[in-house]
Amino acid sequence: MATQDSSAERYIPLPNPESSLWHRVTCCISIWIFKLFVTTAITASHFPLISGLPWLPYNPPTFTKVYEQGLTNRVFVPKSWKSGDPLLPLYIDIHGGGFCLCSPHIDDRTCTELSNNNNLLVVSLDYRKAPTNPYPAAVNDLIKAINSVLDDESMPFDRKKVAVGGFSAGANLSLAVCQDESLQGKIGGIISFYAPVDWSTTTPDKLLTRPSNAGKDALENSAPWFNWAYVNVGQNLKDSMLSPLYAPSNKLPPKIYFLGCEFDMLCKESELLAERLAKERSGEDIAPGDVWEKGGIKWEKILGEGHGFDASPALGEKKVRVEKRRKEMLESAAAWLFKEVYVSKI
């Protein structure tokens, strides 16, 4: 089961072992079929006749931006903002997709809502995907992209009010990039939505951390595919840029909001990271709970939901419930940003 190593054990390297030929072939075929399906769906969603359908709202960015990495990033300026207005707080979004799938386009709705509802400049970044570009390609791409955004004088944001966040793989990458030396002191906070933060624990062991009534996990079948695609054989699984569970507290921003889903096999590892950081920063033990704040760290467990619940297809009563919880989650995240990050001096 997922457990927090002692301080001494935390930094002992754990090389990624080579799997069987059958496992490698199965993962390779599965991930490429999955990529083809998702890429086709995303491409189709760009067409106006499809993207304008009621169940697939069309939320285009204000404009797109390409930096030296050659990747297209999406920029969302609040509709109420006009030239000459005060500079905006900046939220940098990193999309999910198991490090293998999707593009910033999938977060358009979220970015549009965050921008317009909270008067934020939101920049949604792209990165190269596995398996053709395994770790650390995405991390390196995003470090360069974030520095490019921060150096871009045409962007109307306050350099003292900067946060990064993402969903799933995007949350992992948010926690990874902020450890880089070039970004130290530049990022005020992170919002981590249901992140994978520990590659040193196996999928079967992670599944054991879920409640008995959780049902089948959304990642149970696909997690091995993503792991094979993203992490090379021999890679240290305790590398903190891969597994932020092992990140030194002083390398991360002063404020971090972790959200986990109760029925998600990734929930426990995010909770363990939140508890360790809060204890190290406050010098106090953390009492277990579904919601707590201490030492600049906030933890929230979304009860009764699984991984990616807010992005999964839903109908009827389930859709109403999911939309309500999604709205509450984003409102809570925005409120935390203004309470903890956008008032802080970096």
Key descriptive features of the protein:
346 residues, Rossmann fold, 10 helices, 9 strands, globular, AB_hydrolase_3
Per CATH, what is the topology? Rossmann fold
Low-confidence sequence ranges: 51-55
Question: Approximately how much helix is present in the residues?
Answer: 25-40%
**Number of helices, counting only DSSP H or I runs of 4 residues or more:** 10
Q: How many domains, in number, for the residues?
A: 1
Main sheet summary: 9 strands, mixed
Based on helices, strands and strand pairing, what is the structural class? alpha/beta
Q: What would the principal axes of the Cα set say about the shape?
A: globular
Mean pLDDT across every amino acid position: 92
Per CATH, the superfamily is: Alpha/Beta hydrolase fold, catalytic domain
SSE order, as H and E? HHHEEEHEHEHEHHEHEEH
**Total beta-strand segments:** 9
Organism: Calycina marina
GO molecular function: hydrolase activity
Domain Alpha/beta hydrolase fold-3: 93-280
Protein name: Prolyl oligopeptidase-like protein
